[in-house]
Design goal:
The complex is a heterotrimer of chains A (308), B (472) and C (514).
Chain A: H1 4-7, H2 9-34, H3 42-60, H4 63-87, H5 92-115, E1 127-129, H6 131-135, H7 140-144, E2 145-147, H8 148-166, H9 168-178, H10 180-185, H11 190-216, H12 228-238, H13 243-261, H14 270-287
Helix pairs in contact in A: 2-8, 2-11, 2-12, 2-13, 3-4, 3-5, 3-11, 3-12, 4-5, 4-11, 8-9, 9-11, 12-13, 12-14, 13-14
Chain B: H1 17-54, H2 57-64, H3 68-91, H4 96-120, H5 128-145, H6 151-180, H7 184-203, H8 244-261, H9 263-273, H10 275-280, H11 285-308, H12 325-335, H13 340-360, H14 369-382, H15 384-391, H16 403-424, H17 427-444, H18 449-471
Helix pairs in contact in B: 1-3, 1-14, 1-16, 2-3, 3-4, 3-13, 4-8, 4-11, 4-12, 4-13, 5-6, 5-7, 5-11, 5-12, 6-7, 6-11, 8-9, 9-11, 12-13, 12-14, 16-17, 16-18, 17-18
Chain C: E1 10-19, E2 22-32, E3 37-41, H1 48-55, E4 63-68, E5 71-73, H2 78-83, E6 86-89, H3 101-106, H4 119-133, H5 148-161, E7 166-170, H6 178-193, E8 197-202, H7 205-211, E9 214-219, E10 222-228, H8 234-242, E11 260-270, E12 276-286, E13 290-294, H9 301-308, E14 314-321, E15 324-325, H10 331-336, E16 339-342, H11 346-350, H12 357-360, H13 379-392, H14 409-422, E17 427-431, H15 439-454, E18 458-463, H16 466-472, E19 475-480, E20 483-489, H17 495-502
Parallel strand pairs in C: 3-8, 3-9, 6-7, 7-8, 13-18, 13-19, 16-17, 17-18
Antiparallel strand pairs in C: 1-2, 1-4, 4-5, 9-10, 11-12, 11-14, 14-15, 19-20
The chains are: A mainly alpha (308), B mainly alpha (472), C alpha/beta (514).
Chain lengths: 308, 472, 514
C-alpha cells in the first residue's frame, strides 16, 4: 500500500475524471426512470456517443460539433427505445438489451469499416482552467483544471436537480413516473413527457460517451465503455434516482476505480480487483433494501395504457 | 414481471409421449412464422447497412437508373457478406465447418435454457454470463485438484460442481426477489459483474487461484485431460465437437420433460402465469421462484463447466473470461420462445453468426455486423406482441381442427429455405425445404395444393441452385 | 322545502347506458337543486357509479340529456365537465403519493411562471382555498403520509381549485373511520352553505340519512324513488334498495348439520390500506349446513375470505378447521385439511387463463396420486378427469385443451367450481360464486352448492346478492364494517331485517324520522 498516493491531488482529480462519464449516463438514467421508463441500454448509448463524437469530430475538425453529434445520435437511438417502450408498449428490459447489443455492434462495425486504425490527431475537447479556483493550493489542481466536459457535467447535475425538483416541468415529470393515471386525469401529457425524458437520457449518455473519446483520451476503441454504462445504472440506483445522488455515487465508484488505476495498491493484486467489485456489491445490497429503501419511481418500467 | 414468451409448453393434456412430442413440434411451427419474419427483417436492415457503408448507393443509382440491374449491383454486397457468413458456418462439403458452428452453439444452448427456465417462472435471468463464469472457474479448480481421478468420475464431478456454482448465483438472485422484492434484472446484472471481476481477482497473479504454471498470466491450474469430454471424431477426423452435444440435447429434453410432465414444472409455469392463482391453489410461490432461479443458474454454470471440459481447450480458466454467451442466451431464449427445439435452432443460428462472422471480414464486412443483427433481432422480439397482431394470429378457441392453420408455418419455412437455397446455392437449404414440406404432408396426412406448390418450388430452387453452382 | 326559483344545478333526464347486453342505467332521472346534498343509493351493480361517471364525462349516455343550471350540455370528457364546474372525487384516489398536498392540487393547472415552480404561490393559493372552505390541511405535507381522511380532503380541494360548483363523491366514506366521516359531513354541509351542490354515492344508510337532503334510490339500473330525507326512514330506503327479485328458486330442502367444521373466534385483520377490516369476528360453520355472510361489498368480506384461505395475515383471533388450529396456516395446509374455495375474482385468483381447461382443473391437486401416477403428471388421468368434469358440470364451449381464457365467464366459473368440488372438500368457501353469470349458470351453481351441503360439506357463502343468500343459506350472518351485528336462522331472516343490519341500522326500535 502506497499511502503517499492519497496525498497527491492527482488522485482526487482522477476521481472526478472517472466519475464524469458515470454521472452523465446516470443523470440520463435518472431523467428517464423518473418519468417511468426503464432504460438499461445506457452502455450502448454511451458507446454510440463515444464513437460518433470521435468520428464527427475527426470528419468535421471541430470537437464541439463532435459532441453535438454524439448527443444527437444518442438521443436518436434512445428515441427508438422510446417508441418501442412508450408508443408500442413493448418490453422495456428487452428493448434495453437490444439497444446495448445494437450500440456495441454498430459502433464496432462502423469503426472497423471506416476508421479501423484509431483516430490520429483527433480534435478533442480542451481543458479549462478556472482562474481563481486553480490557484488554491491542494484543491486547485483537482477542481480548477479539468476538461470542459467535467464542468459541463457539474453544471448539468445542478440543472437537472433544479429542473426535476424546482420547476413545473419537473413536477409533472415526477408525477408521470409515479402515478401516470393521476397525471393524465388532470391533463398532463404522459406520453410527451416520457418521450422527452427518454430522448434526454440518450443525449446525456451520449455526452458521457463523447467525454470518453474526446475528453478523457483522444481516441476510440471498440467497446471502450467496458461496462461503465452498467456502473452508471448502479450509481443511479444507489443515488436513489436523484441527480445529486447520482453524482455522489459516481464519485464513490470513481474512488474505487481510482484505487485500482493509481498505485495505491499493487495494480494487479487481489485486493484491487476486489475493489472493482464494490460498486456492484453495493448496488446489490441497496436493491435488496438493506441500506434503506432504494425505491424506483412507482410507475417505472410499466407501460401506460390509458384505456386501462 | 412475467414475460409471456409465447405459448408455454404447458403440461400436456394430449395423451402419450409421442403425442406430446408432436404437440411440441406443432407449437414450434406455429411460432416459427413470427421468428422467420423477425429474422428476415433483421437481414433486410443489415443488408441496407452494408449497402450504405460499402458503396455509395446514390452513385450507383445515378449511374444505372432504377432498374433491376441496379438492384442486383447493390444487393451484390450484402449477398457476398451473408454468403460468406453461411459458408463460414456451414459451407464445407463435409461437416467440418458445421461442427465448428455446432461447437459454438453448444454453450449457447445452455445459456438459452438458463434464461428460458427462469422465464417460465416469470423471472428475467440476465445473469447467465456470471453463472457460466462461476461454473467455469469452479470446474477448473476441481478439475485440476482432482486430476488424478479417472475420467469417468472426474468429468461428472467437474460438470456437477459447475452446475452447483451457477445454481448458487441463481438462487441468490431468486431469494432476493422472493423475500426482498429485489428486481431480478438488476440483481443478476450486478451478480454478473461480481462473478466476472471476482473470478479475475481470484485468478490473477497473486490471487489465491492462480495456477502454478501460469507464467505471469491470470490463469488457473490446468485440469488434466481426465476432465475432458470425449471428442466426437466419427463426425470427421478434424471434428471439434465433443460429447457435450449429448449433454446439451439431454438438458433440452429434460427441460421439455419437466414442463410437459412433472407437477414441479406445472407449478413453476403457474407461478409465472398467475402468482395469485398459484398461491390460491396451494403452490408455495417463494420456494418455486428460488428453485427456478437456482436451476436456471445451474444451467448457466454448466455452460462454463463444459467449456472447461472441452478437449480442444486448455482446461484452465483464464481471466478475463467474458465470452458473451450469457447475453446471447437472452436472445436465444426469446427467439426460441421457450420451446426447446426452437432454442436449439436459435442457438445454432447464433453459433453460425459467431463462426461465420470472421469469414465476412474476407469480403470486407466487419464481423460486428452480427452484433448489429442480434440487436435488431432482439429489438423486434421486444415488439413481439405487435408482430403477432400484424400477423393477426387468433389465439382463441383451440379445437383440434384449428391446428391445421398453424401447420402452414411449416410451408412458410419451406418456402424460405428454398429461396435461401436458390440465392446462395446451398444444397443444405434446399434439402431442408423439401424436408419441411414432407413433414407437413406427413402430419396432415393429406396433400394440399399449397404443399404441392411448395414442394415444386423447392425442387425448382434446388435444381436451379445446383445448376448455378455447377456452371458458374 | 321552498320551491326552486332557479334552474336545478344538475338535471339528468332519461339517461340510458348500455355496455354490450348489460343495461347499466335505464332511463334514469335525477334532479339536484343548487345548494343541496343529493345521495344516490343502491346495491352493487345498481348503476350509481355509471350514472355519475356520465355526469363527469367519463362515459357518454346512449340516450337522454344532461342539463347544468338548466342548460343542456354534452360532455366528451372530464375536461368538459370541469369547464361546466363539475368535479369528481373517485373511490380510488388519483393522487401522487410522494408529492406534497399543494403540488398534487395544482398539478396540471399550476400557477403560471417562467421557469421555477412557484412553490410559495401554490402553497398560498392552496392555504387560502383550504381556509375558505374550512378544509384544514397542511399544504406542505407529503400526500403519501396523510391519513385517508386528509387525502380525501386533498381530492376535494383539487376540484374546488378548478372551480367546481358541483361535486360528485363516489363512496366517500368507504375508506374513512367514523370520526373522519363525521368531519367530512361537517365539511359537506359547510360547502353547501357556500352554494355548492353535492352528489354522493353511498350504500351506508345511516350516513346518508344524517347528511343528505334528498335521496335517489337505484335498483338494477332503474331509478325506483326519489325521497326527501325529512319524510322517509332508513327502513323504507333499505326496502326500496334491496327489493324483491324473482329468481327461479332452487329447493333448499332441509339441512342436517353435524359437527362444527370451521370455528372462528374473535378474528381480526387489517385491510390493504392498514385500517382494521375485521374487528373480532366469531362464528361457526357446521358440516352439512350453509352459513351465508350477507352484506354490501366493502365491509370486510374480501378480507375474511383472504384470511380463511391463508392469503392474508390475521392479526389476532383463532381459526380452526376440524378442531385443528389453522390460524395463519399456509394455503397448502388448509387444502390438505379439506378446505376448498371459490374466489370472488376468478381471473386474479381462480384461474390461470393461459392454461388449458384440463390444467386448470388440476390446480391444487397437481401432487395428488389421483392426478399423478406416481411422481409424474399423467396426461391420461388429467385428460380423463377433464372430460369427466366437463361433462358433469356442463362446461360449454370447451374440450380439455381449450384455453381457459376463451371460455365465457359462466363457464370459467364452472371450471373453478368443478375443480374445487372435485377435491372432495369438507369445507367449502364460495365467495360471490355467481358474479357475472346468467340465470342458467346461477341455477346450476346453486344446485351444486346445495348438493355439496347434502353430502355433508360445510359451506361458507359470502355474497353481496341478498337473494342468493336467502335462497341457499341455512343460517345467515350479516357483516357490516368488520363486525357481525346479527345472525339469523333461515326462518328468522327477512329482507327487511337483513337490509337494516346490512346498511348500518339496528333492530332495536328507533325514534321516528331518523
Amino acid at each position: 500500500m502506497d499511502w503517499s498516493v492519497l496525498a497527491n491531488s492527482d488522485f482526487y482529480a482522477g476521481i472526478l475524471r472517472t466519475a464524469t462519464p458515470l454521472t452523465l449516463a446516470a443523470l440520463g438514467g435518472v431523467m428517464t426512470e423518473r418519468s417511468g421508463v426503464t432504460n438499461i441500454g445506457l452502455e450502448g448509448l454511451m458507446l454510440i456517443g463515444a464513437f460518433f463524437g470521435a468520428w464527427i469530430s475527426a470528419s468535421v475538425g471541430n470537437p464541439w460539433v463532435g459532441v453535438m453529434g454524439a448527443m444527437f445520435f444518442g438521443g436518436l437511438i434512445a428515441l427508438i427505445h422510446g417508441v418501442v417502450s412508450i408508443g408500442l408498449r413493448g418490453n422495456q428490459i428487452i428493448s434495453g438489451v437490444a439497444i446495448n447489443l445494437f450500440g456495441t455492434g454498430i459502433t464496432g462495425y462502423l469503426y472497423e469499416t471506416y476508421v479501423s486504425n484509431g483516430f490520429t490527431n483527433l480534435p478533442s475537447i480542451p481543458n479549462l482552467t478556472i482562474p481563481g479556483l486553480s490557484a488554491i493550493p491542494g484543491v486547485g489542481p483537482v477542481i480548477g483544471v479539468q476538461n470542459s466536459i467535467v464542468y459541463i457535467m457539474l453544471a448539468l447535475v445542478a440543472i437537472t436537480h433544479l429542473v426535476l425538483f424546482h420547476t413545473t416541468l419537473g413536477l409533472r415529470i415526477r408525477a408521470v413516473g409515479e402515478q401516470p393515471r393521476a397525471a393524465d386525469t388532470v391533463g398532463v401529457n404522459v406520453f410527451a413527457l416520457r418521450y422527452l425524458c427518454v430522448t434526454i437520457s440518450g443525449m446525456l449518455a451520449g455526452l458521457g460517451g463523447a467525454y470518453l473519446s474526446l475528453g478523457l483520451i483522444s481516441n476510440f476503441s471498440v467497446n471502450m465503455t467496458s461496462g461503465k454504462g452498467f456502473i452508471a445504472l448502479a450509481a443511479m440506483i444507489v443515488g436513489k434516482w436523484t441527480p445529486l445522488g447520482a453524482l455522489t455515487a459516481s464519485l464513490l465508484f470513481g474512488f474505487g476505480l481510482q484505487i485500482q488505476t493509481s498505485q495505491l495498491v499493487n495494480v494487479s493484486s487481489f485486493a484491487s480487483n476486489i475493489v472493482t467489485i464494490a460498486p456492484y456489491l453495493i448496488t446489490l445490497i441497496a436493491v435488496a433494501g438493506f441500506i434503506g429503501r432504494a425505491t424506483a419511481p412507482a410507475a417505472d418500467g410499466v407501460p401506460y395504457d390509458p384505456t386501462h | 414481471m412475467a414475460v409471456a414468451a409465447g405459448s408455454p409448453a404447458e403440461p400436456s393434456s394430449e395423451g402419450g409421449l409421442g403425442q406430446a412430442l408432436i404437440a411440441l413440434v406443432r407449437r414450434l411451427v406455429a411460432e416459427s412464422a413470427v421468428a422467420a419474419i423477425t429474422l428476415g427483417l433483421a437481414f433486410v436492415l443489415g443488408s441496407l447497412l452494408i449497402i450504405c457503408t460499402t458503396t455509395d448507393p446514390f452513385a450507383v443509382i445515378g449511374e444505372h437508373g432504377f432498374r433491376l440491374k441496379t438492384l442486383g449491383l447493390l444487393l451484390h454486397y450484402p449477398f457476398n457478406a451473408f454468403d460468406s457468413l453461411f459458408s463460414g458456418s456451414f459451407g464445407a462439403p463435409d461437416m467440418t465447418t458445421a461442427t465448428v458452428t455446432f461447437g459454438q452453439a453448444l454453450p449457447l444452448v445452455f445459456t438459452g435454457l438458463a434464461v428460458a427456465f427462469a422465464f417460465r417462472c416469470g423471472l428475467f435471468n440476465i445473469g447467465a454470463e456470471g453463472q457460466l463464469v462461476a461454473g467455469a472457474l469452479v470446474a477448473s479448480m476441481v478439475g485440476s485438484s482432482w486430476s488424478g481421478l479417472p475420467a469417468i468420475l472426474l468429468v461428472p464431478a467437474v460438470l456437477l460442481i459447475s452446475l452447483l456454482a451457477g445454481g448458487v448465483l441463481g438462487a441468490v438472485a431468486g431469494a432476493l426477489k422472493a423475500y426482498r422484492g429485489a428486481h431480478e434484472v438488476i440483481t443478476t446484472i450486478m451478480l454478473n459483474y461480481i462473478a466476472i471481476y471476482g473470478a479475475t481477482a481470484m485468478v490473477e497473479q497473486g490471487g489465491p487461484l492462480n495456477g502454478p504454471n501460469s507464467n505471469g498470466q491470470a490463469v488457473t491450474a490446468h485440469a488434466g485431460s481426465n476432465a475432458f469430454l470425449p471428442l466426437l471424431t466419427w463426425l470427421g477426423k478434424d471434428s471439434t465437437l465433443d460429447a457435450g452435444v449429448f449433454i446439451a440435447l439431454g438438458c433440452a429434453a429434460l427441460y421439455w420433460f419437466i414442463f410437459a410432465r412433472t407437477s414441479f414444472g406445472y407449478e413453476i409455469t403457474a407461478v409465472g402465469l398467475n402468482p395469485g392463482a398459484a398461491a390460491y391453489g396451494g403452490i408455495p410461490i417463494k420456494r418455486r421462484m428460488i428453485m427456478a432461479m437456482a436451476i436456471a443458474g445451474g444451467l448457466g454454470g454448466l455452460a462454463g463447466g463444459l467449456y472447461i471440459a472441452d478437449p480442444t481447450g486448455t482446461g484452465a480458466f483464464q481471466a478475463p473470461f467474458d465470452p458473451g454467451w450469457g447475453f446471447d442466451g437472452i436472445a436465444i431464449a426469446l427467439l426460441g420462445k421457450g420451446n426447446p427445439i426452437g432454442m436449439i435452432l436459435a442457438a445454432i443460428l447464433f453459433g453460425a453468426l459467431r463462426t461465420g462472422s470472421q469469414s465476412m471480414q474476407l469480403v470486407g464486412v466487419s464481423p460486428h455486423m452480427t452484433e448489429v443483427l442480434q440487436g435488431i433481432i432482439v429489438l423486434f422480439i421486444a415488439l413481439d406482441v405487435i408482430v403477432r397482431k400484424l400477423l393477426n394470429r387468433r389465439r382463441g378457441l383451440r379445437t383440434p381442427g384449428d391446428f391445421a392453420a398453424e401447420w402452414r408455418g411449416l410451408l412458410v419455412l419451406a418456402v424460405a429455405s428454398a429461396s435461401i437455397a436458390l440465392i446462395f446455392s446451398h444444397v443444405f437449404f434446399g434439402a431442408l425445404a423439401i424436408a419441411f414440406a414432407a413433414v407437413f404432408v406427413l402430419i396432415r396426412r393429406q396433400v394440399t395444393r399449397g404443399s404441392v406448390a411448395v414442394v415444386v418450388y423447392s425442387v425448382i430452387c434446388l435444381a436451379l441452385g445446383l445448376a448455378i453452382n455447377q456452371y458458374l | 322545502m321552498t320551491p326552486p326559483t332557479e334552474a336545478p344545478a344538475v338535471e339528468m333526464r332519461a339517461i340510458t347506458k348500455r355496455f354490450g347486453t348489460l343495461v347499466a342505467d335505464d332511463h334514469v332521472d335525477l334532479l339536484a337543486p343548487s345548494g343541496t346534498i343529493h345521495a344516490l343509493v343502491g346495491e352493487n351493480g345498481a348503476g350509481k357509479s355509471t350514472l355519475m361517471n356520465m355526469l363527469y364525462g367519463l362515459y357518454t349516455p346512449d340516450s337522454g340529456e344532461i342539463l347544468i343550471h338548466g342548460k343542456p350540455v354534452t360532455l366528451h370528457g372530464p375536461g368538459d365537465a370541469i369547464k361546466q364546474g363539475i368535479g369528481m372525487v373517485h373511490q380510488h384516489f388519483m393522487l401522487v403519493p410522494p408529492l406534497t398536498v399543494a403540488e398534487n392540487i395544482v398539478l396540471g393547472a399550476e400557477p403560471p411562471s417562467l421557469a421555477r415552480f412557484p412553490r410559495q404561490e401554490a402553497i398560498r393559493r392552496v392555504a387560502e382555498l383550504a381556509a375558505r372552505y374550512g378544509l384544514r390541511v397542511d399544504p406542505t405535507a407529503r400526500v403519501g403520509d396523510l391519513p385517508v381522511g386528509l387525502q380525501q380532503r386533498v381530492e376535494i380541494l383539487k376540484t374546488l381549485y378548478r372551480g367546481a360548483e358541483i361535486l360528485i363523491l363516489d363512496e366517500p366514506t368507504a375508506v374513512l373511520t367514523p370520526q373522519e366521516t363525521d368531519e367530512l359531513f361537517v365539511v359537506l354541509r359547510d360547502l353547501v352553505t357556500k352554494g355548492k351542490t353535492i352528489l354522493f354515492i353511498s350504500h351506508k344508510l345511516r350516513e346518508v340519512m344524517s347528511v343528505a337532503d334528498q335521496i335517489s334510490v337505484l335498483r338494477r339500473g332503474k331509478k325506483v324513488a326519489t325521497l326527501e330525507k325529512a319524510t322517509t326512514s332508513r327502513e323504507e330506503i333499505a326496502r326500496l334498495m334491496v327489493g324483491r327479485e324473482i329468481l327461479p328458486q332452487v329447493d333448499r330442502g332441509v339441512s342436517h348439520p353435524g359437527e362444527p367444521v370451521l370455528e372462528v373466534r374473535d378474528l381480526r385483520c387489517d385491510s390493504d390500506r392498514g385500517l382494521s377490516a375485521l374487528k373480532g369476528l366469531s362464528f361457526t360453520v357446521r358440516a352439512g349446513e350453509v352459513l351465508g355472510i350477507a352484506g354490501v361489498e366493502g365491509n370486510g368480506q374480501s378480507e375474511l375470505v383472504d384470511v380463511l384461505t391463508g392469503l392474508r395475515h390475521a392479526t389476532s383471533g383463532t381459526v380452526s378447521l376440524h378442531g385443528q388450529p389453522v390460524t395463519n396456516a399456509t394455503p397448502r395446509r388448509l387444502r390438505d385439511l379439506g378446505l376448498a374455495a371459490i374466489p370472488e375474482d376468478r381471473h386474479a385468483r381462480g384461474l390461470i387463463l393461459e392454461y388449458s381447461v384440463a390444467n386448470n382443473l388440476v390446480l391444487g391437486s397437481q401432487n395428488s396420486p389421483a392426478v399423478t401416477g406416481g411422481w409424474l403428471l399423467s396426461p391420461r388421468r388429467i385428460l380423463e378427469r377433464a372430460r369427466r368434469l366437463i361433462g358433469q358440470f356442463d362446461i360449454r364451449g370447451a374440450v380439455p385443451a381449450t384455453r381457459a381464457r376463451s371460455l365465457s365467464g359462466g363457464n370459467q366459473q364452472k371450471v373453478v367450481l368443478a375443480r374445487e368440488i372435485e377435491s372432495r372438500p369438507s369445507f367449502l368457501i364460495a365467495a360471490q360464486p355467481t358474479r357475472g353469470l346468467d340465470i342458467g349458470a346461477i341455477q346450476f351453481v346453486h344446485q351444486q352448492l346445495l348438493a355439496e351441503r347434502d353430502k355433508g360439506v360445510g359451506i361458507l357463502l359470502v355474497s353481496a346478492e341478498l337473494d342468493e343468500i336467502l335462497a341457499l343459506s341455512d343460517r345467515i350472518a350479516v357483516l357490516y364494517e368488520g363486525s357481525i351485528p346479527g345472525t339469523f336462522t333461515a326462518e328468522e331472516a327477512t329482507e327487511d331485517r337483513l337490509g337494516i343490519l346490512m346498511t348500518g341500522g339496528s333492530l332495536t326500535p328507533e325514534p321516528v324520522g331518523g
